[in-house]
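dumping this here so i dont lose it
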């Protein structure tokens, strides 16, 4: 994944081009939809209109749709999602895109949240109506939320955002288009196959979006603290390296601590060199860092 020329000079967001006010509005909207569908799933059985929506979705029968949806399902089911997550993480590491890599490594936490809601909160059963052409064959798993949809939004939504780092426009368009298609098709697939109710799918889109916003905001805030942390680690390394020799235990421990501090400072320096959220967030700190970190 080549990085655009001049990316070191041109400030880029940590995970995409969405500005903070946009993140806030998207997060609030997603939270509202998620809470509404969660309360509905907790208090009421699926409404009659949901069965009608499922029946309408299952009447969509163009040639080859079953095979196409089965192929797309390979990208979001348990094994396929893990494989794609590993490929994406390795690609970020190879490109030295450290903040996207950190975000990708945190994605499994979203699966824990999704699974916890289904196990501890919602007891809604999956669709098993005889009126459906296809229904769920799983009589034990809960219906809300859909792990396929939540996972698709997290993984492919992250890809959609990070695609802004790609050098060529056609690459950005290709990755974003493919990511959007996978996210959209995953929701329709869950309805077409009768695996979830419509509000399950809607709530899962909202949950995935909300978790992704939390991830973006968390990375942005952490990114602002990295230059200062790098300076502190470098200062600690310098202080330990120049400490006078003391007892035998001190002579053994101090070099190890100094090496660890230098390693931490270098790692944090790599994170600080990755495109920041905004130029103003680290510019004033970076001017104070080089003299200290270079000595480490």
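and the seq i came up w/
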């Amino acid at each position: 994944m080549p990085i655009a020329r001049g990316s070191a000079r041109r400030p880029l967001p940590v995970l995409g081009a969405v500005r903070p006010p946009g993140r806030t509005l998207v997060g609030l909207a997603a939270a509202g939809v998620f809470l509404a569908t969660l309360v509905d799933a907790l208090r009421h059985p699926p409404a009659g209109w949901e069965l009608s929506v499922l029946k309408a979705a299952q009447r969509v029968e163009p040639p080859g749709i079953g095979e196409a949806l089965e192929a797309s399902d390979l990208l979001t089911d348990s094994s396929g999602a893990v494989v794609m997550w590993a490929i994406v993480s390795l690609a970020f590491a190879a490109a030295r895109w450290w903040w996207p890599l950190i975000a990708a490594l945190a994605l499994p936490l979203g699966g824990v949240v999704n699974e916890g809601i289904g196990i501890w909160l919602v007891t809604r059963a999956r669709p098993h109506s005889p009126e459906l052409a296809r229904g769920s064959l799983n009589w034990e798993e809960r219906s809300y939320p859909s792990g396929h949809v939540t996972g698709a939004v997290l993984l492919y939504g992250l890809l959609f955002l990070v695609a802004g780092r790609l050098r060529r426009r056609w690459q950005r368009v290709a990755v974003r288009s493919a990511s959007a298609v996978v996210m959209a098709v995953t929701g329709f697939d869950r309805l077409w196959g009768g695996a979830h109710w419509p509000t399950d799918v809607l709530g899962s889109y909202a949950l995935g979006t909300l978790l992704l916003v939390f991830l973006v905001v968390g990375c942005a805030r952490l990114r602002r603290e990295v230059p200062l942390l790098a300076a502190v680690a470098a200062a600690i390394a310098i202080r330990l390296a120049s400490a006078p020799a003391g007892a035998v235990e001190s002579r053994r421990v101090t070099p190890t601590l100094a090496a660890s501090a230098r390693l931490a400072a270098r790692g944090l320096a790599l994170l600080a060199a990755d495109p920041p959220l905004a130029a103003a967030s680290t510019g004033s700190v970076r001017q104070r860092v080089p003299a200290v970190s270079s000595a480490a």
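The chain has two domains: 20-220, 224-293.
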